[in-house]
Amino acid sequence: MVNYRYLGNSGFKVTEITYGNWITHGSQVENDAALATVHRALELGITSFDTADVYANTVAEQVLGEALKGQRRESLEIFTKVYWPVGPGGANDSGLSRKHIMDGIHGSLRRLGTDYVDLYQAHRYDYETPLEETMQAFADIVRQGKALYIGVSEWTAEQLRAGHALAEDLGIQLVSNQPQYSALWRVIEGKVIPTSEELGISQIVWSPMAQGVLSGKYLPGQPAPVGSRATDEKSGAGFIKRFMTDDVLSAVQKLHPVAEQAGLTLPQLAIAWVLQNPNVSAALVGASRPEQLDDTVKASGITLDADTMAAIDAALGSVAETDPALTEESSPKRRP
After folding, report:
1. 123, 130, 193, 328: which has the fewest C-beta neighbours closer than 10 Å?
2. Which residues form a coiled coil (predicted)?
3. How many Å apart are CA 206 and CA 179, to the nearest integer?
4. How far is CA 222 from the centre of its chain?
5. Which residues are catalytic?
6. Predicted confidence (pLDDT) at residue 23 exceeds the cutoff of 80
7. Considering the chain, what is the average pLDDT of its residues?
8. What dihedral do alpha carbons 137, 91, 53, 105 form, nearest 10°?
């Protein structure tokens, strides 16, 4: 079964392996397969589920809501997000204005088939909306019982500090940040994590396997396997391109003996690596087939010894991205 961790300085617990449906539900896999995968996640002990209104332009939320129908609501932790454009893309169909946030939460609750979400997250930072307006809207949603906790995604250390201060003034809890983080993408380690530790904010990390590159299935000097994420524009090919270089792929191949020595598969090693960071509360994993989860959940509860961590650093250290400034690039300076 999957272990639980506290989210931020709250009393709220989430499964340290959380199911995310970014590029699967509503786009990459058929609904029957999506439902079967969610049900397998539940069987394996995953009770935390992450989605967003923008995923498959709202369809992913609908599919997740259908898959969770009939489950005891109190035994689930459901997260969703607001910021990116949904619907026809009108003037107020994106961002973190009060209007878009209020429209967003009502639409998400309707599609998910629930009265509240456990965690409502700002999917990016909105430079066009005063932060006070954004945090006041989140505070009102919490007081209305439509969300229990507030989180953000890909905010810089400075943005986290400002948001946390306003949340405290408003009497709500900003408990989490959702950044990209993996053994190949370590940009949050320099500033975001130290600031988060100081403020009592946890990380819910996405792409712990670097879009599948850390599975070892992509080989240097060879074309990507047919049907893989790297060949499918609908399933994140644009995100994986930065890792699809021969030097990165060659470095990843050096992890095979490290994983073997630890008694783990490469996906398990990658997920276990992010979970060694005490500021990480959960690693988001997706799956297009139920059996994929059978492997990845085994990373829960694994402790990697110092020699294993050092061996991973030795293999990937020269190709891992560590520039803290890259976090700021995640949020557009103008609404999309």
Report:
1. 130
2. none
3. 6
4. 29
5. 55
6. no
7. 94
8. 30
With contact defined as beta carbons under 8 Å apart, do 271 and 17 qualify? Answer: yes
Contact 138, 150 (CB under 8 A): yes
Domain positions in the chain: 4-330
Nearest to 65, CA basis, from 31, 23, 89, 16:
31
Any residues with CB less than 8 A from the CB of 43 and at least 6 apart, and which? Answer: none
Q: Is 311's pLDDT higher than 70? A: yes
| Torsion angle of the four alpha carbons 65, 41, 150, 198, in this order, in degrees rounded to the nearest 10 | -170
What residue has token string 């996906």?
267
pLDDT average, residue stretch 217-239: 68
3-state helix, strand, coil in the chain (%, to 5): 45, 15, 40
Q: Average pLDDT of 258-273? A: 98
Q: What are the DSSP calls for 207-241, one per residue?
A: -TTGGGGGGT-S-TTSPPPTTSGGG-GGGTHHHHG
Provide the pairing of β-strand 13-15 with 4-6.
antiparallel
Residue 52 has pLDDT above 90, yes or no: yes
Tell which residue, 267, 221, 270, 227, has the closest CA to residue 244.
221
What does the pLDDT average to over 44-49? 98
Among 83, 17, 55, 110, which Cα is nearest to 236's?
55
Q: Which residues touch 277 (CB under 8 Å, ≥6 apart)?
A: 181, 193, 203
pLDDT of residue 111: 98
**pLDDT of res. 32:** 82
User: In this predicted structure, what is the pLDDT of residue 87?
Assistant: 85
Task: Give the model's pLDDT for residue 229.
Answer: 59
The yes or no reply on domain 4-330 and CATH 3.40.50.620 is no
Q: Which of helix, strand or coil describes residue 10? A: coil
Give residues with Cβ within 8 angstroms of 162, minimum separation 6: 131
> Residue 123 has what pLDDT?
98
What is the distance between the alpha carbons of residues 149 and 120, in angstroms, rounded to a whole number? 6
Identify the bridge partners of residue 13 per DSSP, sorted by sequence position.
6
